[in-house]
């Protein structure tokens, strides 16, 4: 994992998130109308809460949509986690001739809309997270 620098706002959001959920947070990204929390492996259930109770509380507190992604040490599992609930069939890492590292993600055809998200927001979020945590230059959804 590359060294991630957090802003003071991101650190405040992490502190509130951890106090509400009890889940450990590795990263927080302030997005366009949402907050994305990358939680420690195994902490996604605690972060979400029974029936999504923690997410509802956090949405009211922060006034924006709250998303949770479970961290994984390896790129393939992290990509699968970041695309959930879309069913990922295959993840391939390709190094281009110019040194760029790309990730090709194949999803179930019926889950393609879920993987891309409204106006491509989920796809863009995943590109940001994979770049931030693994130094990947791009993500292509097939």
Tell me what the structure shows.
- There is one protein chain.
- The protein has 142 residues and is α/β, with parallel strands linked by helices.
- It folds into 2 domains: 8-70, K homology (KH) domain (GMP Synthetase, Chain A, domain 3), CATH 3.30.300; 75-141, 2-Layer Sandwich (GMP Synthetase, Chain A, domain 3).
- Helices cover 40% and strands 26% of the residues.
- It has helices spanning 8-21, 44-48, 53-62, 75-83, 112-116, 121-134; strands spanning 25-30, 34-39, 65-70, 88-95, 101-107, 138-141.
- Strands 1-2-3 form a 3-stranded mixed sheet.
- A hairpin with a 3-residue loop joins strand 1 and strand 2.
- Helix 1 (8-21) packs antiparallel against helix 3 (53-62) and helix 4 packs antiparallel against helix 6 (121-134).
- The radius of gyration is 15 Å and the shape is globular.
- The model has no long low-confidence stretch (mean pLDDT 91).
Task: Summarize the SSE layout with pairings.
Blueprint: H1 8-21, E1 25-30, E2 34-39, H2 44-48, H3 53-62, E3 65-70, H4 75-83, E4 88-95, E5 101-107, H5 112-116, H6 121-134, E6 138-141
Parallel strand pairs: 2-3, 5-6
Antiparallel strand pairs: 1-2, 4-5
What is shown here, in short?
By secondary structure, this protein is of the alpha/beta class. It has helices spanning 8-21, 44-48, 53-62, 75-83, 112-116, 121-134, and strands at residues 25-30, 34-39, 65-70, 88-95, 101-107, 138-141.
């Amino acid at each position: 994992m590359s060294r991630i620098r957090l802003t003071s706002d991101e650190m405040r959001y992490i502190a509130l998130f951890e106090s509400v959920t009890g889940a450990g947070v590795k990263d927080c990204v302030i997005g366009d109308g949402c907050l994305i929390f990358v939680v420690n492996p195994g902490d996604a259930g605690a972060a979400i809460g029974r029936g999504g109770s923690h997410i509802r509380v956090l949405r009211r507190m922060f006034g924006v949509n709250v998303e949770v992604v479970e961290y994984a040490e390896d790129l393939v599992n992290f990509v699968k986690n970041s695309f959930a609930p879309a069913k990922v069939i295959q993840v391939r890492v390709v190094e281009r001739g110019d040194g760029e590292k790309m990730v090709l993600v194949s999803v179930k055809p019926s889950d393609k809309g879920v993987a891309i998200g409204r106006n491509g927001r989920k796809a863009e979020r995943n590109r940001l997270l994979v770049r931030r945590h693994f130094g990947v230059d791009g993500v292509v959804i097939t």
